[in-house]
Amino acid sequence: MAHTQVQIEHSQLWRLLEATAGRERTAELFAMIAVDAPLLTDAGETVPRVVLAQAMNMLLFAKNLDAVPEGKVYVTEKLAVGGQVVFDHGALRTVAAANTGALPTGELAFKRFLEPLGFTVADVYPLARLKMTGRAYCHQDAPELVAQFFVSELHVDQFSPAFQQAVDNVVKSSRDPLNDRAKALLVKLADARALPFAEAVELLPQLVGCFAVQHDTPALADYEALLAESAEMAWISTEGNCFNHATDHVDDVFAVADALRAQGMPIKDKVEVSANGSVRQTAFKATQVERQFKAADGSLVTRTVPGSFYEFITRDLIADSATGEQKLDLRFDSSNAQGIFKMTAAAC
């Protein structure tokens, strides 16, 4: 059943987003992203963790769309015919290195707040070809309603000494986007599974700020050394912990891909299909962006590099192994993931 605008605007989720991003942006988010009824509880004195998680996800989706013009064109056209985005998951990349400055290493930079928000690791996906590991964080309170996070971690110790030195040069300047107050609020959230409204408003922008570049401008020589061994680490050196991609859950990914290809949109040539056939994914090729690097003489130079992209996924219903109940297959697939990761390598 469709929600009335009155119901939406009286929800805790609307109030939280409006207090953080303003009324106009909030209206845009609700028009663009499908939000299920259980996430539209009436406004109260405290914000449940699931509502805070959903608010963060909606802001992150919009942030990714602002960075990916191809995705924005697709979503704009979808909205024009009365559709909405079903936000499936967002992906980000982290670095398991010896020295990441003030930022916790690898997935720990995100585990520390995803878990208080109610997310838990549903499965671990080896990405051996990329010398990475992926972890799917799924929300415990509403697994089919709140977008997941696919957090990948690059294992620096599996690369050459020259590569490891270049990584160190880049990430040792990393800052921690969470201040002491935010960390204290996360402890409180983990314990109570909710925060008073004012504290949720205070914490939300800091959470969104974690999905950004936390280190200084990289040296061009370091970027080139990273690119020689890992397109993924080269991407991290310019884009940091930004969303690598956001994903729209569609009914038929093959039909969507064919339609976009016919329009001349930069869609991946192949749809990735999981080993069991129940998860199918494709994506736009990464947006090309201009980034600055430090030259050997200390001056700044600009290069065009791959940025973020927008993905499409179709998930089938499968029988729950314990209950036999039909549920959405929320799993990922290592082969699919490594195929999708190539979207940021193609134009390197």
TrEMBL record:
Keywords: Dioxygenase, Iron, Oxidoreductase. It holds the Pfam family HGLS. Its EC number is 1.13.11.93. Its cofactor is Fe(2+). This is 2-oxoadipate dioxygenase/decarboxylase. Belongs to the 2-oxoadipate dioxygenase/decarboxylase family. CDD domains: VOC_like (cd16349). Coiled coil: none annotated. InterPro entries: HGLS.
